[in-house]
Structures are given as C-alpha cells and as structure tokens.
Amino acid sequence: MAEQFQLRLADSFMLAPTVRHLSFERVDGQPLAFVPGQFLQVHFHYDDGKPTKRSYSVGTVGDGSGPVERIEIAVSYVDGGAATKLLGELEQGGTIDASGPYGRFCLMEADRNQRYILIATGTGVTPYRAMLPQMEALMASRGCRFMLLYGARNEGELLYGEEFEAFARTHEGFTFHPCLSRGARPNPRPHDRLGYVQDMLAELEPSGETDIAYLCGNPNMVDAAFAALKEHGLAVQQIRREKYISSR
Length: 248
What we know:
Elements: E1 3-16, E2 19-26, E3 39-45, E4 51-57, E5 71-76, H1 82-88, E6 95-102, E7 115-121, H2 126-142, E8 145-152, H3 161-170, E9 174-180, E10 193-194, H4 197-204, E11 211-217, H5 219-231, E12 239-243
Parallel strand pairs: 7-8, 7-11, 8-9, 9-10, 11-12
Antiparallel strand pairs: 1-2, 1-6, 2-5, 3-4, 3-6
Helix pairs in contact: 4-5
C-alpha cells in the first residue's frame, strides 16, 4: 500500500556521465516495503510553484522477501530538467518528498514459464537489478532461465553492467547480453552484441510456449520489442511493459 514519506540522501555516485545513483533512507527511520519492479514518486514544485512529480524504479538489491533500509534509484539527467536540478544538485543529508511504492512490473508467483526475456535501455535496467534475488530463487525452485538484453550506446552507459556480469558468472541460468548501438567496446566480451536490443531478439528464438518478456526503458524500444515479440508468437499477456519518458 502506497505511503507518503520524506527521504534523506545517504550516499550517491555517478553511474555514467549523465546518470546518478542515489541511496536514500526514510527520515522517519522506517524501512520501505516494496516488491522488486515497483517504483516511487518524487514530489516537488516547479520554479513557478506548480506541483509535479517524477517516477523512479527502486533498484535496491535486498533479499527479495522483506523491507529494505536503503532506497536506491538511478536518475538520468535531462538538460534543463526540473527533476535534474532537484536530484542532480541534492547534497548528502538533503531531503525530498516521496510516495510509494507503486506498480505491477514484477515477477508473478502464478507464472509457470520456463524462461524470462528481460529487455532494457538506460535506467530501465534498474528494476531488474532489484529482481536479482528473486531470479536466484526462481532458478533454484523452478529451474527458470533469465536472458537480460540491455541496450546502451557504449560501454560507459551500461548501468550496473559489472554487477550483472558478476551475477551471470555465478548463476548458470542467467545470461547477460549488453547490446551496444554505437560500436564495440575496446575489449569486447563474449556475450556482447552490436546493435539495438529489439534486433537481437531473433537470436533468442522467443516462444509463446516457454517465455514471458519484460520491457522497460525508452518508449520507442518498448514498442519495437513488443511488436517483434508478438511476431515471434508471444501473446499480449506474456509481454509486460514499462516505459520511461523524460520530462522537464
């Protein structure tokens, strides 16, 4: 159930030249109960006093089963953006108003599929980071496999890339494919792919018999991947979507 609360910035660092990772704690000292895949809304005002809000997926890697003390999000900077001004300039100890959690972009207990195809661009990969403990549990309990296709222009924009690489090395059921649209990195890795994520789908041979897909990120990518997955035989209910739209 959604709540309203204040968050205090506990730590932050730059994930990429225009993306900041922020770790918050609730000012009231309470942990945050959320389901991996859900998001928070940050509430603030434009310079003219008009209220507004922005949504950010919770990226905290907990144990997947209970509340967390640290609330982690990734924020993309938008030139001239009001949220960028707020969150880009927020100093450690600074506070913001928030509410949540919201959303149903989550792994579902009733699913009985054999494989998950997870697709993301930009900060759309954040909810998959939070899902890692659940993925580990599903690999153990149901023998599920997970394929993560993550689109970025270059190596420097692969958010949490090393974390996903490390998870793939220790979990046979998880494969991570960075999809780089502006050319290979200086030291390519075996699972790297060149091009856009939606163009890589054919290689995975998606199947309506075995797969459920999650799409998160740029709206154009989400729409293109959705259409491609339907062509491969996935029904609409087997494709779960969340679009990230940049707002000023």
